[in-house]
Amino acid sequence: MSYSIALIIENAPLLLIGLRATLLLAAVTLLASTILGVVLGTLATAKARWVRLLVALYVETFRDIPLIVTIFTIFFGAPFLGVPLEPFPAVALGLSLWGGANAAEIVRGGISAVHKGQREAATALGLRVWKIYLLVLWPQALRAVLPAFTGLLALIIQSTSLGALVGVTEFLKAGGLIIERS
Q: What mean pLDDT, rounded, does the chain reach?
């Protein structure tokens, strides 16, 4: 058996811990980002200008600030506000806020891609606003949104490695620990 295979087998428990943390962090972040993205992306298409401006402020803030700054601010800043956070929740929150901003832009773009005649037809039929989104706009926007969400998932999985900087033992950190030991 070669040295590298023996090294992997010997350190399999640590690698599995890291893989579990990476997948759990990615799943939590994707779920929170999707919920946040659908809500904010839908609000970004609202008629009220002040709602669109608030959503745009959130989206641009979290898309423009580097992700590592967001994670560090949450992890090191929360204790000053009296909310000490463990590394995992701090990274999950930071990734979710960033992912939610990106998801909101994806959802807004998907809804905007639906021809405006669809909304007008639904309004002419007397559908309420929530039914227009649920029955007409969201199903049609889904086709445009899915490829971009796949890319966002890949970015989220890659970004979980930033958790190592505040103490989350994710997959890449586990690999780094193995390299340091060997």
A: 91
Task: State the number of CA atoms in the 13 A half-sphere of 100 facing the CB.
Answer: 24
- What pLDDT digit, counting tens, does each position of 69-107 carry? 999 999 999 989 999 889 999 999 999 999 999 999 999
Q: What's the per-residue H, E or C state across the chain? A: CCHHHHHHHHCHHHHHHHHHHHHHHHHHHHHHHHHHHHHHHHHCCCCCHHHHHHHHHHHHHHHHCCHHHHHHHHHHHHHHHCCCCCHHHHHHHHHHHHHHHHHHHHHHHHHHHCCHHHHHHHHHCCCCHHHHHHHHHHHHHHHHHHHHHHHHHHHHHHHHHHHHHHCCCCHHHHHHHHHHHC
Q: Which residue has the higher pLDDT, 16 or 45?
A: 45
Res. 1 pLDDT band, cuts 50 70 90: low
